Amino acid sequence: MTLCAATALLLAGCGSAEPKPAPEGGKQQPQPAASSAPAAGGGGAKHDVTLEVGGTGKTAVMYSGLGSGFEQQTLPWSKSGTAELTAAEQKVGYLVSVVPGTVTGSDGKLQQAPCTIKVDGKVVAESDGVTNVKGCSYTIKQ
Question: Whose CA is closest to 82, among 68, 65, 69?
Fold first, then answer.
């Protein structure tokens, strides 16, 4: 249920990336690429981010903050990258999250796979998949 709600929330927040129609008799103009790079003069703060999902087998993993995705993954799984915050994001925050699907626990019952988020090498969010079934999320601020 949590995974469905998180998926709906993620999809509802996505904008359209479809190009605008070409003007009459003209060529299609290239569209600017979406960027999380800071605006000129913004001075972005950079943070190394690692998203991890533990366990064995395969499960669906939804993530955001280092791009975004919702895919079937072989566990254990991790994704690392650099988050560069704009001046505004340094004030209000930059959300990174990972919501894993279910795996079979040691007791044979289904449970959410455990997850961890590390920022600059420090664990900032984690879930064992049993006591906290909302996945992992963290707002980076500078």
Answer: 65
